[in-house]
């Protein structure tokens, strides 16, 4: 089965073709980072308009690069949520219309299910069941994954998502959007021990997270050490970045180990933008090896938004007999636990 995948839920236009026999045939991504940089964050209307401009050229490009004709395709998968409503509508309308025009099924894909399954595109994929830590700009969730669509939420952030906290802390240090990777790079030059930031909600049982206090703590520390221009000196900024990253990573590691212990599973999958964080990967690998568990994550470029994860998730959903009807329906808010379970 060969599936065209379309991702337009936020600020990246992603297109890919996945073949269940031969694997990922090709993919392309256009990031809108430069477009939103002047505003310090994603401007939804600009995002939608840019998806309109970039999506079809990217589809043509991937089809040409992979020598795929419409008649070679068995379906079109598009992200239907969660995400920005206008941005989602662009991918959903285009995906639905292409499938209709080509006389093949279309399938609506859940963006976070896409992230969750992305490590399965790798050479040594994880097998069900496992615990997944989904860490993106909009979500921080621990999920028990028993099979495709068989998800139980174990814990989640009660306020900011981990990626959102990274982005906000980065802004306090005057780093450009998107702040997460920039803060991580600055942290490499810092001393994580100079400041000790709190590890929120780790001193009580449970698997929920809260990152908004950490944001306030960062702001207080920045202000306390600020020079005349409102920012601490370069080394102090790096030390604050390192202390912040260490606190987020430590908190995530503590909760992941707890989730692995609770589930009794030996596999942890991490996915979503923050799973690209090097320190998080290192710390999870060392932490979980003590529990005899292994960590799986996608290759770097598939940690953040991309079309490949949507094409792959769509192929599994289509194989399970799902397809969307002719109405174009998007769901900006869409709990993953509402997805249909498939037979195993
Ligand atoms: O999954 P994603 O591309 O989009 C959403 O679905 O939200 O995640 C984007 C988030 C942003 O908050 C970004 O700052 C964060 O992932 N991120 C990182 C790193 N790379 C991306 N955060 C920390 N360290 C990184 N290396
Ligand atoms: Zn995402």
Radius of gyration: 20 Å
The average pLDDT score comes to 97
* Tally of DSSP helical segments: 10
Q: Label the structural class.
A: alpha/beta
Biggest sheet: strand arrangement: 3-2-1-4-5
Bound molecules: 5'-O-[(R)-(carboxyoxy)(hydroxy)phosphoryl]adenosine, zinc ion
Report the uncertain regions: none
Total DSSP E strands? 10
Beta-strand fraction estimate? 15-25%
> Could you say which overall geometry the principal axes of the C-alpha atoms support?
globular
Briefly summarize what is shown.
By secondary structure, the chain is an alpha/beta fold. It is built from ten helices and ten strands. Helices cover 40% and strands 19% of the residues.
